[in-house]
Amino acid sequence: MSKAKLMQGNEACVEGAIAAGMRFFAGYPITPSTEIAELSAENLPKVGGKFIQMEDEIASMGAVIGASLTGLKAMTATSGPGFSLKQENIGFASLNEVPCVVVNVQRGGPSTGLPTLPAQGEVMQARWGTHGDHPIIVISPSSVKETYEFAIRAFNLSEKYRVPCILLMDEVIAHMRERVELPDPSEIEIVNRKKPDASIEKYNPCEDYDGDGIPPMASFGDGIPFHVTGLIHDKTGFPSTKPEVTQNLIDRLMGKIENNLEDIIDYEEVLTEDAETVIVTFGSVARSALRAINLLREEGIKVGMIRLKTIWPFPEKVIQETSQRAKNIIVPEMNYGQLIDVVKAAADSKCNIVGLNKYVGELITPEEVMAKVKEVINRA
Amino acid sequence: MRKELEKYFRANRLPHIWCPGCGHGIITGALMRAIDNLKLDKKNICIVSGIGCSSRAPGYLDFYTLHTTHGRGLAFATGIKFAKPDLKVIVVTGDGDCTAIGGNHFIHACRRNIDITTIVFNNNIYGMTSGQYSPMTPKGAYATTAPYGNIDRNFDLCKLADAAGATYVARSTVYHVPQLIKLMEKAIDHKGFSMVEVADICPTYFGRKNKLGSPVKMMEVLRDSAISIKAAEKLSKEELVGKIITGEFHNEIAPEYTEEYEKTIEKAQGGC
Fold first, then answer.
1. Among the partner residues A66, A71, A225, nearest to B77 by beta-carbon distance
2. In this structure, what is the dihedral angle of CA atoms B36, B40, B42, B48, given to the nearest 10 degrees?
3. Chain B window 186-225: which residues touch A at a Cβ cutoff of 8 Å?
């Protein structure tokens, strides 16, 4: 039976993560994500899980990877500066296909920036923050309820594809309180990483046994010794500098995402069918966009919205199709203009694409979205 | 190689990458002898490293092995040990990896007294990047980044570990192998955070740059400069210059981190 609860976004994140099977959290205090660490410290031991406050952000990411290698579902949470510090080890997790969830509650940047105020400045960092070509999944909730659901989905995607999943929140969603109907635990779909067949005589930790690009993952302590290294490695897990080994590895890692776009990409379309102007948005800004659309529709203005739930891999197809129909696409985001570049790259060149950018630590309001829509329509 | 040690090595990963005369093989061999003497189940041992010459050791060893990012071996190892306390976790690290980029993780692992054994391969130099000074390079020594002599003061790593809260602290050298094996055994057997610093040699980068002669000559220097804790107590500060004090500096039993957390779990599940 489901139960209703008044919850904060950060609280929903922890509840969802524990429901998904999180049993390890390592973190470091940072605003506005700290409640995620606090609630993990309180609730994890109740279910036999482990919480540790590490000496810094880098160590937290390292500990999460170590724990995941022993088979536990592990998460860390941070915000801007801490997200920057974690990047090297996020790359290690991506290369070594270590499932883990990294929550980044976006606040104003750059540097220490606006610690208590919202932003969406890490659209690009979430994708390309660590060095080198690597796969990653980034999903972004627009409500407290969705934060609960996406925490579960983040673990499921991470376990299924053996890739770090970034839960990209923002300060508004993190600190907002909403009524959430929590599902009955029996109704929650839980995905666990693939384990190697016990009958395997010689386990190669990076061998694509099933042909789906996702090697089964043994755990430290399972009885099968194996090696994990941040160096480029072959199917045995040991280092190699051979061009063909590197090519095969990187292609397989990227393929895990590219070959499963349908499964990973998720978005919501609102009144896009007849829309002449479509708003492409995500996170808390989508709430203002929705309000604006409802008010503009009352005025007879044909406007709709594509709300991205998955940001990376970027949902190119729907943007491309929409851009062939709609006259205008507006991309409101709480940054100087990040998502808009990806939208432009995916869209038909005939479509008029306009940004609405606010980077002052305040949420974009419905009025601002409405004004931008009218400005764009009148100019056309 | 001694027959009984073969099972600990991944023969197909050898030969190793270390230079002729390097002391890393001696330390790795001593560690395997210590594990063998303790009759530990190799399927219950996880060996973790950071980045650098010494951090390549785990790749040659047939355990659960993890070659992490620079300086972060102890951070990853903390996650492993905390998540799975039944595993015996050993970290192998170099002087740069452990005391410079990994210095923060080192002091905090000491402070928590988490049951991890750390073996520090201290050859006083960054070898992998060909000879830059580390926080363990003696004052006045030369390195590629100290062409006029090093002005940095070096750590006394045993004092640092002790002050930070490690409950087992020892030092030996690659010349004094029987002592080294014994100290490693005690460190691995110790419940809590243990650290063995091993005075090591890098003939290629530290030796050449400082005109210390052949590897044999460098080993002789280790032989002649090592002095026991007891003997050191009788010497003045001036007389101790250039000496390597060896032995067991600290050995105490204190609450261990993962065991303490088990009590936290009991509290969380029993109370309120």
1. A66
2. -90
3. none
**Number of Cβ atoms within 10 Å of the Cβ of A332:** 27
Using the structure block, give the residue that is written with the tokens 């990896």.
B97
Distance from CA of B7 to the nearest CA of A (A): 12
Residues 6+ positions from B165 with CB-CB distance below 8 Å = B110, B111, B112, B113, B193
Spatial CB neighbours of B13, under 8 Å, sequence gap ≥ 6: A238, B59, B60
- Side-chain half-sphere CA neighbours of B253 within 13 A: 3
Pairing of β A22-27 and β A73-78: parallel
Rounded-to-integer distance, Cα A248 and Cα A258, Å: 15
Which residues partner with A203 through β-bridges?
Answer: none
Residues of B in contact with A24 (CB under 8 A): 79, 82-83
Is A228's CB within 8 Å of B66's CB?
A: yes
Euclidean distance between CA atoms B61 and B27, whole angstroms = 13
pLDDT in tens, chain A (380 residues): 578 999 999 999 999 999 999 999 999 999 999 999 999 999 999 999 999 999 999 999 999 999 999 999 999 999 999 999 999 999 999 999 999 999 999 999 999 999 999 999 999 999 999 999 999 999 999 999 999 999 999 999 999 999 999 999 999 999 999 999 999 989 999 999 999 988 888 899 999 999 999 999 999 999 999 999 999 999 999 999 999 999 999 999 999 999 999 999 999 999 999 999 999 999 999 999 999 999 999 999 999 999 999 999 999 999 999 999 999 999 999 999 999 999 999 999 999 999 999 999 999 999 999 999 999 999 76
Strand arrangement, sheet containing A227-229: A227-229, B64-67, B45-49, B88-94, B116-122, B194-199, B168-173, B244-251, B226-228
CATH code, B44: 3.40.50.970
| A55 in B contact zone (CB under 8 Å) | yes
Cα A379 from chain centre = 36
Q: Nearest CA of chain B to the CA of A184: how many Å?
A: 22
Q: Is B265 on the interface with A (CB under 8 A)?
A: yes
For each of the domains in chain A, give its residue range(s) and CATH number, in order of start: 3-187 (3.40.50.970), 267-379 (3.40.50.920)
CA–CA separation, A76 vs B136, rounded Å?
33
CB-based burial of residue B42 (10 Å sphere; 0-12 exposed, 13-18 middle, 19+ buried)? middle
* 8 Å CB contact between B174 and B27: yes
SS3 state of residue A2: coil
ipTM: 0.97
- Whole-number Å distance between alpha carbons of A185 and A176: 24
Sequence-separated (6 or more) residues with CB below 8 Å from residue B39: none
Residue B251, SS3 per DSSP: strand
Partners of residue B72 in chain A, C-beta under 8 Å = 58-59, 62, 89
Contact between A14 and A27 under an 8 Å Cβ cutoff? The reply is no
Q: What does the block give as tokens for B257?
A: 């981190």
Chain A CA closest to residue B87: A221
Amino acid at position B253, single letter: I
Number of separate domains in chain B: 1
Q: Which domain holds residue B27?
A: 3-270
- Interchain contact, A221 vs B46, CB within 8 Å: yes
**Both structure tokens of A207:** 């061998």
**Could you tell me the two tokens for B105?**
């993780």
Cβ atoms < 10 Å from Cβ of A254:
15
